[in-house]
Structures are given as C-alpha cells and as structure tokens.
C-alpha cells in the first residue's frame, strides 16, 4: 500500500466522498484564509509604549524589544495552532482549523490586562485553567451534551449568522466597509482606496471562477489578487506599502523595520506558572468564567455552522462525535496558554476549506503542516495580505446564507430565536452572543404560546447560565472585583 493509499484509508476518503487532491486544496484554502492571525494575534497581544507610557496593554518582556516580543508571539501562535490541528486531524478526523481566537485575544489584552490591571502572566494562567476545565468536561461528554441542548432553530440559524459575521470581517479588511460615528458602518471611500478597488476586483474575479465551477477558485482568486497587488506596486501605480505590506501594517509592524527572526520563545513558555502567585480567587474565577463562556460557545457555534455547511450534522441538527473536535480545541487552548498565547479556538474560516470540498482530518493536517512551514518565514508567516485572504470570507458568507432555508419561518417559536441568533451575531461581533440570544429566547417564546412542555430542563438552565454571563460581562462586576 502506497503513501497515498495509506492516507486515503486512515482518513476515510472513500467514506467521505473525497480524495487527496480535494483535501489538499481545501487545506491550502483554509490556511490562506487563516494566515492573517499569525500577524494579527501578536499585534493584539503585545504591549505598546510611547515615551515610557503604555498606550496599548498586553504582554511585555523585560530585556526584549517590542519587535522581538511580537515575533516570539508569532512563533507561539504557529506552534499552538499546529498542535491543536494535529489533534483535530488524527483524533477528530474533521476539516476544522484552529488558532488563537480574535476577540478572545482582545479580551485578554484590553480587558483583563488593560482595564482590570491583571498581570499578563495571570491572564495566561486563566487561559490554562480554562483549557484544563474544557478537557475534563469534554472527556466526560459534558460539552457535547451542552451543544446538543441547543434548540433546533438556533442550530439551523448559526450557519447564516456566521455567514453575516464573516461578511463584515471580510468587507472591513477589504476596505469596502468602514467605521462611521453616526451609523457605525458605512461604505468606504472606494475610489480613493486602491486596496478596496483591488479587493473588489479580486472578489468578483473569485466569484466568477466559483460560479463557473473552477476547482480551487478561492485559492486562485486570493493568489491572483495578491500578485496583482505586487505588480501594481512594482509598476509604480501605487506607493510601496499600500498593497504590498498592507498585511504587515495591519499587524502593527513596519516593513522597513523588521528585525532578524526571533525564535527563542523561552521567556513566554511557562510564564503562566508565575501568574498563580498572589491570585485573588474571586476575580480570577470570574476571568476564567468569561474566557470559558466565550470560547465554549464560539467553538460550539463554529462547529455547528461549519458542520451544517459541510453536511456533517445529523437529522436532529447535531454534530456526531462532537467530543473529538471539542477535545482538539481544549488541548489547543491548554497548550497555547502554556506556550504563552490566548485561547485557541475553532475558526469560522474553516468554512472556506469545507466549501472547497474538504471533508476529513487531512484538511487539518495540511493546515498544520503549512503553519509549521511558516516558521521559516517568521515574521512574514501571514504573507498573503488581508485584503486578498479575506476575499474568501465574503465568498463563503454568500454561500452560507443558504442555510437560512432550513429554518421553519412559519413557526414563530422557531423564527424568533433563529432571527435573534442571526441578527445579534454580526451586530455584536460575536458568535457566542448570537447563540446566547437565541437560547434565551427559545424557552421564553415556547412558554408564551403554551408549549412549555417542549422545553427541556437543560435548555432552561442554559438560558439562565447565559443571563448570568451577560450580567457578569456587562454589569462592571469584573472591574469592581479586581
């Protein structure tokens, strides 16, 4: 039996109606869609100072410069992601990518370290504790049980909600959508922004390829857009750094100031152990609680939403053997915290590979290998600019909108929680908040129409838990407890 046949047998290509070429293409697609995190995560996690004053909270290492810290965190990001995806590949056999989560790293730096004044080592300790709790809950099947408590309309709405969430992320990175103080979001100044113009051309090129059924169309679109940016820069159409290096600038690193790659991550590894010293139990527990809720339901929502797009869900809308991909997430979080980064979670960008036909853990293996190979080009691991890689998110967002047809819109006890899930998710920039809105609404509307006997005790408890979470998250109790 050859190497290809061994892979086919191990991952079950025939059973999942796929082949090695399709899985590799899907893995490359997912990697390209996720690659931005290797620059963005270190940028968010690292402390920035100016004139001796902290202007952005985060990780600061005595004796090391900002650039060296950024690169150490880039290495840690790659390692933690690769380890989690190897577990996903060989244990879970699912095509999901994992990496430190956007939003969770911001909560780590800006809220825990910045607003609460908690040392970054203690924040890492909270991440490790959260990961250990996840492992224990997953081992006994509790996480899968909780996910299976999701009301049916919420399960079917998650895919569409994630689609809208991806669309906002992608359009912002492309420069098509911009911030506005009056309306929150507005159309960007497209004609004045070469990034937006090129990204839009790349988007329509990619959509045209996809509509024609071209295999690997998303990859082709991303690479073509990146190449076009390089050509326009070299031809002098735009100034250097506008299209080439835009990904670097978004990561907070000046392309002209990149130092030699820093691979020694010793100062970060094990730093969480120092975080347990002089811990105030109540505030520490609240921080762990918040990390737990956001990560748990971001992961749950991603698994259900991407699982729906890939046809992985059963007739009840559940993901079979969900404990396995959940364990990969839990291991990634624990290892990531030990290495020195924030919570590792399953990525919604996994949908890009699934849409390319990826169906097995071979996709995760390809992504893991590409992340490890990216160590050779630290800190340029995310060499695909965001305006190009995020084209994939918009393409997938359009495709995921079709999931809305699975919802029974004629039944208001389904339409209300499903609608809230879809609306709250993109408008709060959180998968977890969208799921929470739907879960809280479901027992309320069911009881209101007299169908309270259709609501399980666990669903009431889940809704109550979310109410407690929202109180903790928004009441200021975290600030007063520290």
Layout: helices, strands, pairs:
Elements: H1 3-11, H2 20-34, H3 37-45, E1 48-50, E2 53-56, H4 66-92, E3 98-100, H5 104-115, H6 120-139, H7 142-148, H8 152-174, E4 177-180, E5 184-187, H9 194-211, H10 217-234, H11 246-250, H12 281-309, H13 323-339, E6 344-346, H14 350-355, H15 361-373, H16 386-389, H17 391-400, H18 412-427, H19 431-448, H20 457-474, H21 477-481
Antiparallel strand pairs: 1-2, 3-6, 4-5
Structure description:
The chain has 482 residues and is mainly alpha-helical. The protein has one domain. A two-stranded antiparallel ribbon has the order 1-2. Strand 4 and strand 5 form a beta hairpin. Helix 19 crosses helix 20. It is globular, with a radius of gyration of 22 Å. Belongs to the nucleobase:cation symporter-2 (NCS2) (TC 2.A.40) family. Azg-like subfamily. Keywords: Cell membrane, Membrane, Transmembrane, Transmembrane helix, Transport. It is a multi-pass membrane protein. This is Uracil permease. It comes from Halarchaeum rubridurum.
Task: Give a brief outline of the structure.
The protein is 62% helix and 4% strand. By secondary structure, it is mostly helical.
- Please give the domain count: 1
How much strand? under 5%
**Class of secondary structure makeup:** mainly alpha
- N-to-C order of helices and strands: HHHEEHEHHHHEEHHHHHEHHHHHHHH
Radius of gyration: 22 Å
Low-confidence stretches: 245-258
Give the tally of β-strands: 6
* Mean pLDDT level: 86
Shape: globular
Q: Could you give a short account of the major beta sheet?
A: 2 strands, antiparallel
Strand order of the largest sheet: 1-2
DSSP summary: helix tally: 21
Protein name: Uracil permease
Main location: membrane
Transmembrane segments: 70-91, 98-117, 123-142, 154-178, 190-211, 218-238, 281-297, 362-381, 387-407, 419-445, 457-478
Subcellular location: Cell membrane
